[in-house]
Amino acid sequence: MTERYNALIIGAGIGGLTAAARLLEEGMRVLVLEADPHPGGTAYAYHRKGFDFPMGPLGFSSPDLVRDTLIKVGIDEPLELERVYYELSAFGLRAPLSLPYAEMITRLAVLFPDEEAGISRFFSHMREISALQDRLAKEGVSRSRKAESVSAAGYLDRLIGDWRLRRILGSMGSREPYSGITLLAAMWSLLCDRGIHYPSGGIRGLSDTLAASLGWEAPVLGAGGSAADEHLLNPGGPGSLWLRTEAVEILVEKGMAAGAFLADGTRLEADAVISNADFKATFLRLLPRDAVPDEVYRAVAEARQTASNLQVCLGLDESRADLSAYRDASRIIYRRDGGEVPPREGGPDWDAPEIDPEALAGEELEATLLSADDPALAPEGRAVLVIRVAAPFRHFARFRPRRKRRIPGYFAYKKSLADALVGEASGFIPGLQDAVLYMDVATPLTFEERGGRSGGAVAGWSWEYLEGSDQEVVELIRTPIPRLYMAGYQAYSTLALGGVPSAMLSGLKAAEYLLEGADPVSGMPIPGGTRD
To answer: What is the mean pLDDT of the chain?
Structure first.
């Protein structure tokens, strides 16, 4: 007789784990499938040569929402958080990026005295717009409400004269403004109002806490033997977590989600399914084609996502590098000084077979001294530095003849790119190259295959502004397929809470919809997709 579950959850990311914890609170029988040997998806860490490196997020905002969600799923352990700070090093200046609004106005006015009035107006507008969005969200994000549709670039052209300040305010960095004004306001709210926080025990600790309800016992990173070696966790309990177990198809019977198939042909049956896989994986790969309405399939296929990253994780000898640049902030957004000329937009020729490593090094870099926030990541006298730069998936796709395989030259090529980034970062971290004890490099291929993110997208749906488009607060949890719900950071569109809080909230909502037997929706307003 086939075993049957009340709920089958595909993917043990933050959203899937939150959903599982909520359902277990109601006494439901839950099975979570995870292809990786650990829970949490990219909200985790991995161990190399004595150092612990991040797989994905380096912090999160909306800490009160995270705490409230944990309580709602039955977890009352205290969540200890430290606020982290960002600075910009570009255009020959250092500027704060994450101080409270009043301090941002004061500090930026010192750097740009002729723009003080515009700076004050800008942050006043940011506060007003984000407050409006918060109010709409509290009314219920399922009510798709149109928000102000204005490009940040156009808005700042009218408000600010100095091109450097337009870039700082429009991108929270050195790039040309690229989003709409509503999303820009939400992002400034995350940085300056709510703040970005790092939890005690790291992002991995949050995943471990959520997974504990499924029998997960968090191993010490780098230690041999752990619950990660078990295929079935918590056997016989109401909730189970199967690691190294990939769902290859969602079972649909009589038009309703009814379970899943595993790679070995195993059929798992359930009353309902929550997919914590991303939307492209769920609707283009996991669901049978005839189960997905044409307009939804087309919208998901055409929807644009954010770019991916090239990530360089470094284990350092602190005594060999001057880390004083991180005195006031653990995260630095850096771009080499181009003098009085705005940096050329467009970057490297990503359509070329290989790009010039020095061209990549001239792009905007995010360099995070993560061990300053979490000393436990490195042994005493050592440090962990994470350098990230935007990189498109399409450029690296040619190096992969098939999944988890690479053509000759790939490893040497990605190392040449990483070496150029380390050399560039040496401009503000003297001695960095001599301090490197270990280097690990991840490309967009890594983020797709090991992170479960289609196209390696690091932040879900595209944030770029499209002329004539409407920014909307959209919930994407219920689907047109009865008894199929979505969880994860893509399940809310433009509700810029940040990735981890969005994923948790989506998991909570997915579980609640499942519990109440919520009806399917007739369509899904996928951001950037075709809408008939």
So the answer is: 89
Closest CA to 479 of 313, 177, 257, 201: 257
Going by C-alpha positions, the residue among 332, 410, 338 that lies closest to residue 366 is 332
d(CA 491, CA 505): 9
What strands, in cross-sheet order, belong to the sheet with 145-146? 145-146, 472-475, 492-493
Are residues 462 and 528 in contact, defined by beta-carbon separation less than 8 angstroms? yes
Which structure tokens are listed for 45? 């860490």
Rounded to whole angstroms, what are the CA distances from 55 to 14, 38, 309, 440, 441? 13, 12, 12, 11, 11
Spell out the domains of the chain, with CATH numbers in brackets.
Answer: 4-77+201-304+472-516 (3.50.50.60), 83-197 (no CATH), 307-456 (no CATH)
Give strand pairing partners of 231.
none
Q: Specify the DSSP element, H or E, that contains 118.
A: helix 116-140
In terms of Cα–Cα distance, which of 281, 265, 259 is closest to 29? 259
Q: Rg (Cα) of the chain, in Å, rounded?
A: 23
Q: Which residues contact 51 (CB under 8 A, 6 or more apart)?
A: 313, 315, 377, 378, 379, 382, 384, 438
Measured CA to CA, the distance from residue 167 to residue 344 in angstroms comes to: 13
pLDDT in tens, 174-230: 999 988 888 899 889 999 999 999 998 899 999 999 999 999 988 765 544 344 445
Residue the block writes with tokens 């009353």: 271
Cα–Cα distance, 451 to 56 (Å, whole number)? 8
pLDDT digits over 95-138, tens only? 999 999 999 999 999 999 999 999 999 999 999 988 887 776 66
